[in-house]
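Please predict the structure of the following assembly.
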Amino acid sequence: MAKAVGIDLGTTNSVIAVVEGGQPTVIPNAEGSRTTPSVVAFLDNGERLVGQLARRQAILNPKGTITSAKRFVGRRFDEVKSEIQAVAYDVVEGPNGTVRFKVHDRLVSPEEVSALVLRKLADDAGKFLGEKVTEAVITVPAYFNDAQRQSTKDAGRIAGLEVLRIINEPTAAALAYGLDKRSNETVLVFDLGGGTFDVSILDVGEGVVEVRATSGDTHLGGDDFDRRLVDHLAEEFKKENGIDLRNDAQALQRLFEAAEKAKIELSAVTQTQVNLPFITADANGPKHLVTSIMRAQFEEMTRDLLDRCLGPVEHAMADAKVTASDIDEVILVGGSTRMPAVQNLVRRLTGGKDPNMTVNPDEVVADGAAVQAAVIKGEMQDVLLLDVTPLSLGVETLGGVMSKIIERNTTIPARRTEVFTTAEDNQPAVDIVILQGERERAADNRVLGRLRLEGIRPAPRGVPQVEVTFDIDANGILNVSARDRDTGAEQQITITETSNLSRDDVDRMVRDAEVHRNEDERLRQEVDARNELDSVSYQVRRRLDEVGDGVPSNERSRAEMLLAEARQAIENQADLERLRSLTSDLQQIFHSLAAATATGDGQGGPEASAPDEDVIDADFTVG
Amino acid sequence: MPDGPVRDAEVKPAEDARAPDGDAERAVEHEQERVPDDRLLRALADVDNLRKRFDREVARARADERARAAQSWLPVVDNLELALDHAGPECAPLAEGLRAVRDQAVALLAALGFPRFEDVGQAFDPARDEALAIVETGAPSGTVVATLRPGYGTAESMLRPAGVVVARASD
């Protein structure tokens, strides 16, 4: 079956995504990039290039390289006079006042150019997915009129795609965050891309998304910020060295790359280095551009660009008749919204609300379009039926800690088996306490039930193997069984109340675990360390008994002394450091005892002397 | 995938068909008993597909990360190269040593799957080259006349195209 995709057909870049396994994911193009430049080149020989390849040859073919076709799609020639000034190729009037690009004596419509971009995205995605892409949801800006929407649909059709629906970019962003499922909310979408700025106010509720107002600036974006940084660096260098780097193609290329990198770094740190050694040379030798830029400095030189975002936001809010306090959610779209100054501005304008930015802002629109495509095709339903365990499930083990068997958020039905053993010699039975929760200490979690497995044949501690299986069916009913591998004896219990916790209870338990994480971690380490010391003490004692008189008296007395100290340390709950140093001392004794006797299985350490110890996950206390 | 391996499920019925006649009735009965729930089959298929996708994605993630790490080293190699271009005869022994370091870096990139190329004298190819400048020379139009920055990679995995100067016929 063919996949239905979502396409964000942008002014400068386009993105294609598909829902797989219930989650939208972006599909990389043939060159391996997750975004594709919306650029098409028509060569002299009739060949056409799309995306990155078209961009690479742009300066060789300025009249045949079409960028920003989206600015002309579905518009009349007399509407686009100002846009024509901004492009290097020729724009002419076509039949009935339409817009046409004049390329090598041929007239090309904006729809054809958009179609070539769509075709490349769909073809590359088809190759990646291993199946042809024939259906798509395509996004357009919320302010697009009917003619522009119809033309975008036509572009899809020319590309051989069945356009399932044309949806608004801000609506797609809201879908990607699942906001359509909320009831009655007002959402502000702030979209600052590479070359355009859009702000929209949405009303969402019960699966319906309505655009209440839009505003923006069609010529403002991240590229302007890069340009400022390039100019700043070039001017500074010129002042110092009298050379304008902008006149040197290679230097300019390096400057742009460095500026973009610096801009990105300044989103994470407050100061960054620009390091361009050997940027140019004069009679005196090579010149280097090595400088640092502070975030504050960058924000100062781009303040006016940022200020240009203010008006449209205020305008949209006034049109929608909402104030900052009416806005429930804010969504950031477009790579430029990663800049802290932009985020601060949005926060300030929306009454201090924290914006949604967990979904990659370059991809959120395509993701939302993919979700819409999957919903139209009925692909989202099956996935939603699957449930997860809200809390971890496990058993209590030696030292009063919880050993998790099924982690929280595991998709059910699920089945896991782990092997446990005894903590004492000749232990006749094990008690299995079934726990639910996220805390390390057994007593801090909820007890779901108990199970006792008796009739274990006398054996040294660590030898019996008890398989404990947790099986949760699709309804959340938990079946726990314990089986003695030696005798085959088995006990089981069914627990139906695993899922009767309210959402609040679950949240509280998860939060508790988060709050106590550090102390729980320490407690776990202490219990583990005590268990380890106890285990090595046991091995050393056994070895001493086995070897008997073969042990030199000085070594025996040192071992006895350490064993006594270990017992005390365990009883008195000594600190981690003490437990660990005793453990390592006893391990050394064990090895030297093994070497001294050099008989049979003497090479193994304490770990190796218990059979199959590697499969044992924990010890049960005496039952 | 037409030339993928034949699935087990497609082989088994053929084996059953070869069962002796006397057992045929029982075989049919047996078969009906075993007709699995459609949803179960779908779920199993989903798991299988997920596993395949996971394998593919791990491979891709590794390749992507390798390219990303290699790419972040490119400016260092570029700058070393620029330094060598400025080395005059007065520092020849040092330059010779630095050249060896550069060669080492280039060999390392090649070993990672990103061999270096320059393309001077060849026709401009947007799959390999990025045009940074144009000159009017005697060379045929569309020929790469100089490399401002070497490219790294192969047709399948292009780390960075070569930054080149392209000739245009003077007219």
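Chain B has four helices and six strands. Residues 26 and 88 of chain B are 92 Å apart (CA to CA).
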